[in-house]
């Protein structure tokens, strides 16, 4: 594992996101379509998604912007936009979609679904009362789960 991958994984952990949290989202998205699916299989797919450089870059970029927002280190109006997680901003979703796109268009559907429902860890990451800025992180976590779900779907189709 190189420095970029180590950094991306460490940033997720430092921000309170365990890979098992993401695997639980994958399980929620895919259990209906994959009888016998295990959390271990979901975790293996999350791990493979995180091995992609494009994903690592998105994780590092998004989390760094969240951290800079918490430190009030950004110029206005960006500082306020990110603090509020303004709905019309959309750049956080664009970074997430760069992750989703790694495994094809099926990931867009998975991402839209999970981003709307915000199950599991996504609910905690969206809690604005915590004082922690997760404007990018919640979308990144959802995108990793969606990409891992897409990877599962592609592998199942290949086997069939």
Automatic annotation (TrEMBL):
InterPro entries for this protein: PgpA-like_sf (IPR036681), Put_PGPase (IPR026038), YutG/PgpA (IPR007686)
**Superkingdom, taxonomy of origin:** Bacteria
**UniProt domain YutG/PgpA: residue ranges:** 21-154
> Gene3D superfamilies given for it?
PgpA-like
- Pfam families on file: PgpA
Kindly indicate where the leader peptide sits in this chain.
Answer: none
Task: Specify the protein name.
Answer: Phosphatidylglycerophosphatase A
Organism the protein comes from: Shouchella xiaoxiensis
């Amino acid at each position: 594992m190189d420095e970029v991958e180590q950094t991306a994984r460490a940033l997720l952990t430092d921000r309170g996101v365990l890979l098992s949290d993401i695997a639980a989202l994958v399980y929620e998205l895919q259990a209906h379509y994959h009888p016998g699916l295990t959390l271990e299989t979901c975790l293996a797919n999350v791990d493979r998604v995180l091995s992609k450089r494009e994903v690592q870059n998105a994780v590092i970029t998004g989390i760094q912007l969240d951290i800079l927002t918490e430190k009030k280190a950004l110029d206005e109006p960006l500082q306020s936009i990110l603090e509020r997680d303004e709905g019309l901003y959309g750049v956080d979703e664009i970074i997430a979609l760069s992750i989703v796109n790694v495994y094809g268009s099926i990931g867009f559907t998975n991402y839209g679904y999970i981003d709307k429902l915000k199950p599991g860890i996504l609910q905690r990451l969206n809690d604005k009362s915590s004082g922690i800025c997760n404007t990018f992180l919640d979308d990144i976590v959802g995108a990793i789960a969606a990409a891992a779900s897409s990877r599962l779907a592609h592998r199942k189709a290949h086997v069939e």
